[in-house]
Amino acid sequence: VPDGISSDIAMSNRFFCCVVICLIGVGHQDAVVTQFPRHRILGTRKELTLECSQNMNHISMYWYRQDPGYGLQLIYYSNGIRTIAKGDVPEGYRVSRSELKYFPLTLESASTNQTSVYFCASSDSTALQGHILSAQNRGEARREGTL
């Protein structure tokens, strides 16, 4: 292997970055869930906050991730202001819900195993929670983004 190629590979490995792509989703009755940033390149061991907001004052909000070849996995969910519960894969993340319309997700120290597609969702009542949570088992999704 030529020296130039070998050093390029080594440099790429040292400076591996995570990429975040968050897309805007539009839901039922003109409800809009917005994720920001749309995409992001981030070095490992850095903190990153993914913003999520919704315009319908929905009670429940959810953060999911989807790894290549797998279904949705619930990270965290909230059933109202300051009401937060862990999902299936909460390690390495934190959330807050100080206002009904915002539910930011923070990657505490970005790592290569957090390279994934991230989804934020909202629901106008907790009665839909069972249906939304079960979507992760069927791998259903309408919008996607990547970290």
Question: What does it look like?
Answer:
Keywords: Immunity, Signal. Strand 6 and strand 7 form a beta hairpin. The radius of gyration is 17 Å and the shape is globular. The chain has 2 helices and 11 strands, in the order αβββββββββββα. The chain is 15% helix and 37% strand. It has one domain: Immunoglobulin-like (Sandwich). By secondary structure, the chain is α+β, with helices and mostly antiparallel strands. The longest helix has 12 residues. The strands form 3 sheets. It has a 5-stranded antiparallel β-sheet with strand order 2-3-5-10-9, with no helix packed on it. It has a 4-stranded antiparallel β-sheet with strand order 8-7-6-11, covered by helices on one side. The chain has a two-stranded antiparallel sheet with strand order 1-4.
SSE diagram, text form:
Layout: H1 3-14, E1 17-21, E2 25-26, E3 32-36, E4 39-43, E5 48-54, E6 60-66, E7 72-78, E8 84-86, E9 93-95, E10 105-107, E11 117-123, H2 129-138
Antiparallel strand pairs: 1-4, 2-3, 3-5, 5-10, 6-7, 6-11, 7-8, 9-10
